[in-house]
Amino acid sequence: MTSKSNYDVKDLSQAALGKQRIEWAAREMPVVKLIKERFSKEKPLKGIRISGCLHITSETANLGLALQAGGAELVLCASNPLSTQDDVAAALVEFGIPTNAIKGEDDKTYYKHITTALDHNPQLTVDDGADLVTILHTKRSELIKNVIGGTEETTTGVIRLHSLANEGKLKYPIIAVNDAQTKHFFDNRYGTGQSTIDGITRATNILWAGKVVVVCGYGWCGRGVAMRAKGLGAHVVVTEISPVRALEAAMDGFQVMSLMEASRVADIIITLTGDKHVLDDEHFKIMKDGAIIANSGHFNVEINIPALEALSKTRSTVRPFVEEFALKDGKKIFLLGEGRLINLAAAEGHPASVMDMSFANQALCLEYLVKNQGKVELEVHSVPEDIDKEIARLKLASMGITIDTLTDEQETYLNSWQEGT
Length: 421
Ligand SMILES: NC(=O)c1ccc[n+]([C@@H]2O[C@H](COP(=O)([O-])OP(=O)(O)OC[C@H]3O[C@@H](n4cnc5c(N)ncnc54)[C@H](O)[C@@H]3O)[C@@H](O)[C@H]2O)c1
What we know:
Blueprint: H1 15-26, H2 30-42, E1 49-54, H3 58-69, E2 73-78, H4 86-94, E3 99-100, H5 107-118, E4 124-127, H6 131-137, E5 149-152, H7 155-166, E6 174-176, H8 181-204, E7 212-216, H9 220-231, E8 235-239, H10 243-251, E9 255-256, H11 259-265, E10 268-271, H12 281-286, E11 291-295, H13 305-311, E12 312-319, E13 322-327, E14 332-336, H14 342-345, H15 352-371, E15 380-381, H16 385-398, H17 408-414
Parallel strand pairs: 1-2, 1-4, 2-3, 4-5, 5-6, 6-15, 7-8, 7-10, 8-9, 10-11, 11-14
Antiparallel strand pairs: 12-13, 13-14
Helix pairs in contact: 1-3, 1-4, 2-3, 2-15, 3-15, 8-9, 8-15, 15-16
This protein binds nicotinamide-adenine-dinucleotide (NAD).
Nicotinamide-adenine-dinucleotide binds near residues 242, 245, 273 and 298.
């Protein structure tokens, strides 16, 4: 039930626009559509209260509608202060999904919105970055007794949850949706790859060809951004702390160097590490005049913004999502999207086609948690292999792609050790 006390959006009159966007995204989400149709008939989430902390985008709205079709009572809040699409938030309220999210909300409002989502007294949680789960485990722990389980969408959230579990403090089972192959192979790589370039382009309108672009972190997201920047004609440099990933980047044809070396030559630096203060005081000091810096990792701590401020005489917005820091030494550095994930701050996040698989995982994992209530062990789980494979099969079918199956002879051969040279 939506009542004025359980939602908070910028402007309900934007709902019609939001609905159009949601429908547009739905065209590229055939797997979620199939799940929604089955959920409408079977109602596997009938009467289940879900609190979801996700980027409030048109793709998330389609997940929300699928869960609602399955019988769930869902309340949503934003998982980042800058990622909300206000028209989509308004449409969600009209669809009967109370939503608490306003683009550009301050930290106080952000946490107030999480609290409202938790007031729903959830039986399932859906998180992206583990802020909701953290508040539930600390300030609202009295609610945990009713929670069956939860899901986590992103790498950073999964890392936080493993730390919580390692300290013996995790209080209900969580499925790491991020770790499904049909999630991070595609969403983190192709989704972040394309949408990060999109966000930086929309914010700055730069020409990528010929630029020196430094990608910090060659994980799933970094690989995607490096690949797409190269495709646009940039000279891509990778920085890493993992020897194996650095080697992979080198053999993929990228220049690999330390960030101190890379900072001197960079036109654009993009962080995608999930780490803290990757770009810091020492790097700002040696950057070129006019360098552009952006983050696409989950939290806005990858760039040490207070340190940049301390080096600067002035900080001013020169176009939407572009702030100029005029340093005391006379040069200028441009920070995009307040250091928050730039693909969601300045663009629309991942294309719907890739979120189709991520959110199919979400929907099927939530159904799994309800079906197996009381039987799922208290730990951070991988996505069941059957779910991962089924999503890949459905996605391939939606793309009109047929693959081969093993013959009986091949099946026997692959399962035997006797046959050799
Ligand atoms: N922008 C988005 O929409 C989006 C989408 C998915 C994930 N994410 C977030 O992006 C971040 C990266 O995710 P991922 O799946 O690529 O993780 P990952 O673990 O696959 O990769 C992270 C990489 O960063 C490297 N790294 C860590 N600290 C570093 C440092 N100081 N300097 C250089 N490299 C460093 C690690 O060695 C690793 O190779 C996470 O915060 C994740 O939550 C963002």
